[in-house]
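Figure-free illustration: sequence to structure, shown twice.
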Amino acid sequence: MNKRSLCILLCIAFALGLFFQYSRLDGFLHLGAVENRTLIERLLRPAPTEEQLPREKFLIVYDPTDVLSMYARHNMERILTEKRKAFESHPLTGSFAVDSSYRGVALATGHLGSMPMLPAVLDYARAGGTVLLLQKVEQIEGSPISAGTLADFGIAGLGGLTDVHGIHIRTNFLAGGKDFRFGENSAFTTHANAVALTEDATVHITSVEGMPLLWEKTIGEGRIYAYNGVERDDKTNLGVYAALMAHCGTETIYPVVGVKLFILDDFPAPVPEGDFERIYDELGVDTETFYRKIWWPFIRRLAEEEDIRYTGAIIETYGAQVKGPFRPLGGRAARDGLIIYGRELLNMGGELGLHGYNHQPLAPEGYGQPRLNYVPWESPEDMEEAMRELRSYVKSVYPDYEFRFYVPPSNIMSPEGKAAIRKVFPEVIAFGSLFDGPANERAYYQDFEYKDGVYELPRISSGHEDDGLMLWQEISALNYIGVFSHFIHPDELFYESSANTTWHEMETGMKSFMHKISTRFPWLKAETVSDSLPFFSDYFDMEYRVRRTKECMELYTWNYSGETRFLLRTAREIERTDGCMIERADEDVYLVRMSEPEARIYWKEAK
């Protein structure tokens, strides 16, 4: 070999050495450094002179001696406050004026016989007002309700109490809900009266057996909507109450967020090694192949078919360590998974969030850990140290990326744990846990809110199934706040609860569920968690006023920076709009998108 050839070989060997060393040190990762969109400071629109217009006003009547009535009052006040409506609340035995200045009158009690002002309320309805009965009618000894009054509320015969199963929405009383039914042989029941309705009553919701649960009755020039149940111990009544509010008067409008969120919890995460018997028996592949060749391609196709943008929640290890020192335990395979799956998720328009160093909830003793085979943390310092290891792990791959979203493992998180997360990851400004659940569990339950610089963005539903209760919860939440929020986990096939479920059933169930959402709620905008935050900010901060004329509805908005959204319910035909865009959301329901301080919606028949 001559000297020239030897020099060429040495140069090639040297170059290859540099290449592999550079690769081993992750140099190529940083050549295409991944960053996410900066959250810019919001410039809020100033208030117009029309801010002096009064808010739409409601009257609430409640029974201060009845716990369920107080709950109903609280929930209606909560919805009206969130939707920027004014209200006055009075006990049922008090004296108060009932006039046309009220957009609606909500009776948070079924003790109609104990209400001295009931004749005035009914006169208000006959003159064109809307009355909402939020609780089932109750006959009380000494204060009976006459047959005539019952008929005014659409009741021809009042029977005893009964527990009825499920839900059947017969109309589009809840937007996107028409013809939905679930609950045959389920534990979902409503404590209702056995009732027979007058012939002129229109039934909107029944149990699956056909018992009326919500109906409408015309009275004079106005209407009464009656709910035949009691305040539930879950949050599904929020959607019913919001829909009741939306039926008060004509041309009713209220703000919504209008986003669709989908969280891939425990993803990216270390992939279990070896075979899982049920996966191998059904599909003939090991667990790693199932993740790479079956589950992940399905998830990617689903995003394209049903318009989804995913937010992942990274976990570093599945160990049970809660005392330092904390080190990377997943090896090269786990890190490669973070690189490969993470980049593919980002390249399809997704986002990376956090789930934890491991799957031990950041909470000291007393949060129900033994029930779930978890280990309590001894100190906040240990939590912080684990978070620092997680930060080192994710920043070694994505050094310029801001991780803004955190999902607590098993929906458990203590105040000390939340503080540890925000101390190590000050860029985390959104948390996603549970919207609803049993009160006796020490879970991290949330309402949709923004407080102290943090967004609380709970999930409404979860899992790969096409489940009736999940869809009912989403229909309710979408009518209440206009948010779809769903979580899934890649390892759900391994759960004990999935012992009798195949991957084919999970795949077809997830496709069916998401297609129902896309079909029933086509107006939702698919977003990652970070990209949804400006919409939530505008929803929480915005103000608006409504003025109605013969020709149009006038909208005045301020205190927001981007696009604010409303649901408008009207039977009138829309001719044109100025200053806003509208799209049909359902029969007689429209999504109104507004980026200007003023907008007008003109009615066709007003010419």
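We now fold a second protein in the same way, so the two outputs can be compared directly.
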Amino acid sequence: MSELFLGISAFYHDSAAALVRDGVPVAAAQEERFSRRRHDSSFPEQAVRYCLDELGVSFGDVSGVAYYEDPQLKFRRVLATLVGAAPTNLTSFRVTLPSWLRADGKLRAVQVVRQGLEALDMGAVPDIAVRRHHESHAASAFFPSPYRSAAVLCVDGVGEWATTTLWHGQDSSLKPLAEIRFPHSLGLLYSAFTYFCGFKVDSGEYKLMGLAPYGEPRYADLIRERLIDVKPDGSFHMNMRYFEYLRGQVMTGQGFEKLFGGPRRTPEGPLTQREFDLAASVQKVTEEVMLRLARTARERTGESKLCLAGGVALNCVANGKIVDSGIFDEVWIQPAAGDAGGALGAALAVAAERQAPRDHVGSGRDAMSGTLLGPAYSDEQIAEYLRRHKIPHRRLDHGRLVDDVAAALADGKIVGWFQDRMEFGPRALGARSILGDARDPAMQSAMNLKIKFRESFRPFAPAVLAEDAKDYFDVHQESPYMLVVSQVAAPQQITVTDTGATGIDLLRVQRSTIPAVTHVDGSARVQTVSADSSPAYHELLNAFKSLTGCPVLVNTSFNVRGEPIVNSPHEAYTCFMRTNIDMLAMGNFLLNKSDQPPWSEENDWRAEIPLD
């Protein structure tokens, strides 16, 4: 008889729910995709309801619920930190303690989760098990992986106490081997520089990673000398004199300002060479630490395969360094590596205790279904939405739609691609994507400024046919989840003469035959697309290749800056109309911008129509 387990993460950032059947993820979603509040940390009511509805079950069919971390243990760490920093942190006391101690506070997170589940009125709620934060990360990394046994490395900001952990995964067991504890945290080191460079902590780290290639690591030695002492085995100790997160509500203060020659960059202020160089420097140090930790993981476990999770595992450049190093024969990264993935990991950990089978092992595939674990909309549902709102469209058979979209992309058009189930995790992987021609030198700036409304320096990722990936990128393994950065292959590179360009001006220099997805250092965050995991997406890439000879498209998430990725047809149409996207493909329906009535923000339907 099948067993279902529901996992939940909530109350910090990126709350989510995930449902696992016999050890296999079958439904998962982040609450932000339903609430439309980016990084929504509230109880994931809508995500839970979706997971149960997707399988047509109630709580009576669920064997157990798992929460992704231990609130009691976490509170002990928070309290110890507050007491240790007293009396210089009175503001922290006033801000932090009430959020823990009130009736619906974080200390009672498990009770609040139970109340939230009961309020759904979907049957008697089963027992709620509590897992440790890093156990949830480790479970999310190992159990869905295609490996029978592997080393497992989890690196993030902080869970309860752990900030870095090493595990040995074998069949249905995970054995902890080593950990580094708060306040010493590679994730918080990176977040400190994110904050100092004017970006938002817990969401701006990927911007810092994208900024790094514009600079030189001229501060790397200073970081090693003053901020973090890294041992040969990758363990580290941070000099807390320079960090403020133990004492206040900010990451850095005067110590950083004196060390790096001036105040923190004002958010949205101009970027200077200092920010470029700071980003390059902390990125280099992060890569060094991750490589040392990877070598230790290999030595301690004797395994030839590595699994990664935790927020730092979303650092695609560091991941690429590990893959390229050859320390491990294969590396698998949980696509929802952050706290949202903790919901999945908690459910998987409980399922593993019940000896859930890992039948996918040996097939060569992981158990993540290409991350397509979210809601899908049938052609009938899309047709009803379009009819109800009198939206001009064409309904085509699938082959014709693919051909028309490929022709539009080859003609320089930007296309919204809304197909299949929504992805779980931070990346759009061809279900909720905006696509463009990677050969177009103007595409990167056009998408950033006219579609995404975001900073011009940020790179876009290529989606490439898996069978053609090595012709375009120096890839050493498949990269289906866009979590590994590789160099553009030599035959695609263009020799660049010294133009004297620096900083953002480097964007104007063409470096390859696919300039829209080539970063200023000649790298790209690659997504390899295979026919078995993403058939429609693969078909589109094939059609584009047939027209152009190029099997590569620009792929970015279907959203604009500051908003979650779209979930429903309504959200897709709204984003389509509010931006300079030229064409929208939803299911087997094709919408051209030129056919649509004028769009007015005053008539924004989001407040009037359910997001169905």
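Summary for the second example: Confidence is low (pLDDT under 50) at residues 605-612.
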